[in-house]
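Subject: for your reference before the review

Hello V.,

The reviewers asked for a structural picture of the protein, and I figured it would be easier to keep everything in one thread rather than splitting it across files. Below is the amino acid sequence we used in the manuscript, unchanged from the supplementary table.
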Amino acid sequence: MPLAIPANSQLLMIGDSITDCGRARPIGEGGEGALGSGYVSLVDSILKAVSPAHRIRITNMGISGDTVVNLRNRWQQDVLDLAPDWLSIMIGINDVWRQFDSPLQPEWGVPLKIYLSTLTELIAAALPHIKGLILMTPYFIEPNRTDPMRATMDRYGIVVKTLAEDVGARVVDTQAAFDRALVHLHPMSLAADRVHPNQAGHMILARAFLEAIGFEWNLE
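And here is what came back from the structure prediction:
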């Protein structure tokens, strides 16, 4: 199966701290460490190592702490003005997490209805200007599906998968990718707080992303 993203394309990846991972400011691309230390950098490194002739230019525009509302506030500057060919969005973890770790600040979380309407708005604004879209579900590295935060995160993930189907986007089910690993591993072996992955956790995200775009190890 050929790689979904054509050669010489620019792929912009946007999200929260999981995407950010210390990327360069104001624009995360270029030299050593510019893409941060997480899954974005791993995707870039694997593509360069396995398919160097493909020359996919990756830009990291993640910002730690962001919710989908924060994305809306910077969408023009950090997405549309940079005119990427392909766009990857992973947002929702803070939208849910703030509902649990900051119960006295309800305005910090994003209710499901607002999450859906805002993400729909952002996708609609981007689609006329891009050639391809990839939506990554939020996740919680917790195998107990009845855990309140895990159950809530799953509902937000369903929104992402439904929107991807509605607009013909590729979807990366990050929760399913972690669930496969959690059959054999304790959550703390992937993320001490069950949210911010260590390097193994970021590799799980990178692998899931690459599988979603049709990556094969023998591309070149």
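For the response letter, the relevant points are probably these. The CA atoms of residues 9 and 56 lie 5 Å apart. The chain has a mean pLDDT of 96.

Happy to draft the paragraph if you're swamped.

O.
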